[in-house]
Specification:
- 2 copies of one chain form a homodimer.
- Helix content of chain A is 39%, strand content 18%.
- Chain A is globular.
- Chain A has a single domain, classed as Rossmann fold.
- Chain A has a 7-stranded parallel β-sheet, with helices on both faces.
- Chain A is an alpha/beta fold and 222 residues long.
- Chains A and B meet through helix 1 and helix 5 of A and helix 1 and helix 5 of B.
């Protein structure tokens, strides 16, 4: 019964995700679902991305958190239109779903956005099963989490369009092996890997170029 | 309907948790549910704990992961009886539940264990709602995750019997504020806080004394 109910929930979510996707496509927006553990640096990555790309590439952000509006405030300070979803106010969900994103979209001026980042709740597991109508998925891992994460959370990494490995500035002070991480990622995914530090700015170039290329590929298409 | 089904699942889990708790109590075992983000250092903490306390304090470990048996293997190398639950084999669950722990208990010699650590799936959200029949809950956070985690995951921290802040060796190379972390923890919990580094061994003393005191309080009681 548990599985049956979950399947029904996922089916409803999929239908809503299709609606969200259609609305995004009409507006010429590329949406990126950003998934990662608590503290992997998802918001810091978006701040750095905004600092360089916005408003040349017009960004928008939907922030998902169980509690607090801190993350949306951080993006607003970067000049990016951002709305916060506090999932504890809608039942404490451990992940965003398409209905929450649909509500958040109504609070943004879609005509002003080319690339919309949807930062999921800090959780490397549950967000993986719930499509939000996004075009792309980015998984953000970080050096202090260890080089075994793709092996231990294979379903999440397998669905990534790109993987960011954040906090490479901590490589010298941890036991992290870049070769081991890359190997365990390759076992489940062919997605491009961007090792970088959102804190120091090291390695951001490849990631930023990728983001901009996605806009060119998807957005404002005839 | 979603909420109703969840309530039913939680009620079944609660009943099984009572069974587990009774079995543990009969065996004079103190069980500790260890919750934390992916890569917060839960297994490393248990390795260090085993290295000092075991077998003077006779430990046992149940490891929960979505995939791989690596964590149990790490503990077995420390000489501790350990069994692995791979949740992907039972539906990919993002948290342990009491039925999984009950099955794992059947694979351990309970009479040889005084303190049983149950390391949950790496997830700061979902494990919080599912009791496993444990006597105590430890939340493991880590410095690179940032000092805002208790504010952003309040329900998880509010239910902690103790909080470990791991990776304090990285304090000099991060922007983490110990005062901010302690303040945000105090807003939701009065649990003791143990800042330490499982990697360097710094600060382990307080944590180890706490573990040993729990045995004295709970275990082998008349």
């Amino acid at each position: 019964m548990r599985v049956e109910v979950l399947e029904r929930i996922l089916k409803v979510n999929d239908a809503l995700a299709e609606e969200v996707r259609a609305a995004l496509d009409r507006a010429g927006i590329v949406a990126v679902n950003v998934i990662g553990s608590p503290g992997s640096g998802k918001t810091a990555l978006l701040e750095q991305t905004a600092a360089v790309l916005h408003p040349r590439v017009r960004l928008g952000v939907i922030e998902g958190d169980i509690a607090t509006t801190r993350d949306a405030e951080r993006l607003v300070r970067c000049g990016v239109p951002a709305v916060q979803i506090e999932t504890r106010l809608v039942g404490g969900a451990c992940h965003l779903d398409a209905s929450l994103v649909r509500m958040a979209l109504a609070r943004l001026r879609l005509e002003e956005i080319e690339v919309l980042f949807v930062e999921n709740v800090g959780n490397l597991v549950c967000p993986s099963a719930y499509g939000l109508g996004e075009h792309l998925r980015v998984v953000v891992a970080s050096v202090p989490e260890g080089d075994d994460k793709p092996a231990k959370y294979p379903a999440t990494f397998a669905r990534a369009s790109a993987v960011v490995l954040n906090k490479v500035d901590l490589l010298p002070v941890t036991d992290f092996s870049m070769a081991a991480f890359a190997e365990s990622l390759r076992a489940v995914s062919a997605a491009p890997l961007f090792p970088l530090s959102a804190r120091t700015g090291e390695g951001l170039g490849g990631w930023l170029a990728w983001v901009e290329a996605q806009r060119a590929d998807w957005g404002r298409a005839p």
